[in-house]
Amino acid sequence: MGMSVTISAANERDAEQIFRLQYLCFQSEAALYGNYRIDPLVQTLDSVREEVAADCVFVARLGEEVVGSVRGRVTEDGSAAIGKLCVHPRLQGHGIGARLLKAAESALAEERGATVFRLFTGHRSEGNLRLYRKVGYEAVGTSKGADGVPMIVLEKPAGTYAATA
Q1: Interval 100-125: pLDDT, tens
Q2: 97: nearest Cα among 123, 70, 121
Q3: How far, CA to CA in Å, does 161 sit from each of 18, 105, 114?
Q4: What is the pLDDT of residue 163?
Q5: Which of 93, 84, 81, 66 lies closest to 12, judged by CA?
Q6: Residues 62, 91: contact at Cβ < 8 Å?
Q7: What is the mean pLDDT of residues 118-144?
Q8: Is residue 31 packed enough to be buried (19+ CB in 10 Å), middle (13-18) or exposed (0-12)?
Q9: d(CA 112, CA 95)
Q10: What is the pLDDT, as a whole number, of residue 162?
Q11: Are 40 and 84 in contact (CB under 8 A)?
């Protein structure tokens, strides 16, 4: 009998697994852009620990293993910045990313008062763009990441989070 993937709020004990998973998952993004200095690959473990303690962080678990994660925080303008969504490569394409997004969106809207969800993804990241569009995000602009990668800015109103999974 197989185990089910569960989604739950992250805790401080998850930080190291999130850190390792993020490093694994973002290798393909780095290769896509020929840039191995993207933020998820240069972030420190201490910084991940700080985000787990302060931000809205959810993980997907398969048994005790963290196989997915997402982070979000409400910014000064009331929007929720969602980022670093990742799912272990062997489990991608099974709806885990959408489930993580829904969990983060629900908590950010209901517990932290977010009015808009905003996220960024690289302009060549077709799989990411497909997922975000599927769950209701629309491109609203472009920006350049601190690492120089051209990014697409996507948003959706907070009231639409229930339709994401």
Answers
A1: 999 999 999 999 999 999 999 999 99
A2: 70
A3: 24, 6, 11
A4: 47
A5: 66
A6: yes
A7: 94
A8: exposed
A9: 25
A10: 47
A11: yes
Structure tokens at 24: 């694994």
The mean per-residue pLDDT over the stretch 12-35 comes to 95
Helix, coil or strand: residue 57? strand
Global pTM reads 0.91
For residues 47 and 59, the answer to whether their CB atoms sit within 8 Å is: no
The per-residue pLDDT for range 25-62, each reduced to its tens digit, is 999 999 999 989 898 999 999 999 999 999 999 999 99
Q: Which residues contact 87 (CB under 8 A, 6 or more apart)?
A: 25, 60, 67, 68, 96, 97, 100
Give 143's strand partners.
Answer: 151
Q: Which of 116, 118, 122 is nearest to 152 (CA)?
A: 122
List all residues 6 or more positions away from 125 whose beta carbon is below 8 Å from its beta carbon. 29, 32
Are 83 and 119 within 8 A, CB to CB?
yes
77: Cα within 13 Å, side-chain hemisphere: 5
